[in-house]
Design a protein that fits this description.
It contains 4 helices and no strands. The chain is an all-alpha fold. The protein has one domain.
């Protein structure tokens, strides 16, 4: 339990340091293209994958289910909310790849703190 608290506090303070970089208001986009590479939008997809993965994995005691849920949540988000970008398909600009990387990090964290199904 101490490991879980330490990891959650580490994630909390790491995320708190990045919050100073958030813009004060949404910025207008001139095109429908997202940033590539490690843009802020891609980092949000990785954060979504990791947080959903950790939450579902810890609640269900099945890390693999958490990782699958993390990637699935990003795919559902893209399918439901990015309809305005018809030229931007599901796997464009490595969105799902960043989400999968976040979900894999969540899976690795759960394995490190020994989350598993009780027998």
């Amino acid at each position: 339990m101490k490991r879980l608290i330490a990891i959650l506090l580490l994630l909390l303070f790491t995320g708190y340091g990045f919050s100073a970089e958030l813009p004060s208001a949404p910025q207008a986009q001139s095109t429908s293209d997202y940033g590539s590479g490690f843009s802020f939008d891609n980092q949000l997809y990785a954060l979504q994958g990791a947080s959903v993965s950790l939450a579902v994995g810890i609640i269900s005691h099945r890390p693999w289910l958490g990782a699958a849920s993390g990637v699935g949540s990003c795919m559902i988000w893209r399918a439901a909310h990015d309809q305005g970008y018809r030229s931007n398909p599901m796997f464009a600009n490595n969105r799902i790849l960043f989400c999968a990387a976040g979900a894999a990090a969540g899976y690795g964290t759960m394995k490190l703190i020994h989350i598993h199904r009780a027998k």
